[in-house]
């Protein structure tokens, strides 16, 4: 679903109505520096088309964003020589999305930079993992749910 774009800050940036620090762009996407960088070089990659989130974006446009993320990672590696890179995307306010124009964060990382983007969850019990796997399999192929329970009866 493509929604209205007049109030969208990233549509404003794509159209050039609002300022940004662009580092790369192509026919389908624009990559520009985040104004509140988690690290130097923190870049946002957006499709030119206004789409809201991961459920709204087409596979084609998602692929175009992914291709630009890949280019940006290469450029940042050359320019800033980070030790690593995080690629992060938030869809939905529950996941931390603040700007509702699809975007992917590309964040250069350095050893001991102190940035914490990780989680330290305890290992789940096999029952919990199997339960969620069954729920997911049921949504794809109803038959799969049965096969999962049979497969997991003989784990290696
Ligand atoms: P989200 O939380 O939606 O995944 O991330 C939105 C990001 O957009 C934030 O990191 C925020 O700093 C950035 N941002 C918000 N407004 C602007 C803006 O006007 N210009 C730029 N360059 N970045 C913005
Ligand atoms: Zn937009």
TrEMBL record:
Name of this chain's protein: HIT family protein
Protein's organism: Actinospica durhamensis
Matching Gene3D superfamilies: HIT-like (3.30.428.10)
PANTHER family linked: ADENOSINE 5'-MONOPHOSPHORAMIDASE HNT1 (PTHR46648:SF1), HIT FAMILY PROTEIN 1 (PTHR46648)
Name of a matching Pfam family: HIT
Locus of motif Histidine triad motif: 101-105
Catalytic machinery residues: 103
CDD domains, sorted: HINT_subgroup (cd01277)
Segments forming domain HIT: 9-119
GO molecular function, a single term: catalytic activity
Signal peptide start-end: none
GO biological process: nucleotide metabolic process
Top-level taxon: Bacteria
